[in-house]
Amino acid sequence: MNLYTLLQTRIDADRPVRAGVIGAGKFGSMFLAQVPHVSGLEVTAIADLSPERAESSCRAVGWASETIERTDFLESGVGLAERDDVEVVIEATGNPVVGIRHALAAIEHGKHIVMVNVEADVLAGPALAKRASSAGVVYSMAYGDQPALVSEMVDWARACGFQVAAAGKGTKYLPSFHEVTPNNVWQHYGLTSEEAADAGMNPQMFNSFLDGTKSAIEMCAIANACDLNVPAAGLAFPPCGADDLAQVLRPVAAGGALEADGMVEVVSSLQRDGSEVERDLRWGVYVVLKAQNDYAARCFRQYGLTTDTSGQYAAMYKPFHLIGLELGISVLNAALRGEPTGSARVFRGDAVTIAKRDLAAGEALDGEGGYTIWGKAIPAAKSLAEGCLPIGLAHGVRLTRNMIKGEMVRMADVALNEESEALRLRAEVELLIG
Fold it and tell me: What is the pLDDT of residue 1?
């Protein structure tokens, strides 16, 4: 990629790449742990609701006292985006409404924006990317997180001339997980609530990974960045190990589990009986390729790729992702190349809201990973036709009618703030439907 070589030119010119981080949680802290080891990359400011906690995080990840003293710690993410000593803004709060506000501020002030906040990206990413392009700055997915890594693999496959049959990630999944709440999440991670609390782990955030919401959000992000389709009935989470990707993730007509070629999907590391899948891809990402001719298919076999029984489909995968430890790739790509590591382009998938239990009119929805709802990936066209409520808008809004468990929540079922910035950006996204 030559990023390290390009960075040397900035070092020689005494002009380091300067980034600002909004949100010093796990993802942000992992990035901060790497920064001192990348010559030519600096973090000049960190914004967090608790600046003291952010400063403590820097100490915990090994920052020297003099580095901490040179760094400004503040509460305002918008204030960080306005600073002259910030070239790239990293939005890592996880709050979709706040994330949109920060992205708009960064774009307005001529800063590149790396959107760790995939929740905000799925709600407004195509519109934010369009605004960033008009302003001459980069709007980017976060390298190290699955959507950016998958986008890279899809780009590689297409640039090589292959058709993309499927792309996505692995996770731990059973259908019953859709009902899990923060009260009983830790048993599925092999932890006690006391151990999780001691480690500073947020039960609602970790539950969003378990109850299917985060998978829905991430697959929609990939669909919107890579112009891929979302299954009409939602993600199926077929149990599948690394050696079976090409066999399982091909169309039903070819003996697989997909509606057609060109889909996003998540594979489960558990069989439906709860037993473990052999050589699971729980922490990894994948792309399934389809050979465009028989000659390429023969090459698959000749060079050791595991294929399906027809020989036409093969898979490439990474067994792990390192989230914030890899985030510097996005920061340097934006600053040195003016390129994103994946970016929303069209509106193909939407993460919509499903009632986790029976709900009463007047109840407030508590967003992803909570007690009231979970998020499901569906095609954007279906979401618009049925007036579905995006999961990114389901934070703190109140229901206007009773709902039953499993019912899809629609925009008309909640009292929305019609003046909200997020709702306005959502309307812009709907115009970009693919």
Answer: 62
Rounded to two decimals, the pTM is 0.96
Domain 349-430 sits in CATH at: 3.90.1210.10
The continuous run of DSSP H or E covering 20 comes out as strand 17-22
Residue 391 pLDDT more than 70? Answer: yes
Q: Which residues of 254-287 are buried (b: 16+ CB within 10 A; e: fewer)?
A: bebbbbebbbbbbbbbbeeeeeebeebbbbbbbb
CATH 3.90.1210.10 segments of the chain: 349-430
**Which residues, 6+ apart, have CB-to-CB distance to 48 below 8 Å?**
22, 23, 24, 54, 73, 75
DSSP 249-261: SSBGGGTSSBSSS
Give the tens place of pLDDT for each residue, 307-342. 999 999 999 999 999 999 999 999 999 999 999 999
Counting every residue written for the chain, the total comes to: 434
For 3-144+324-337, give the CATH class: alpha beta
User: Given pLDDT bands bounded at 50, 70 and 90, which one contains residue 55?
Assistant: very high
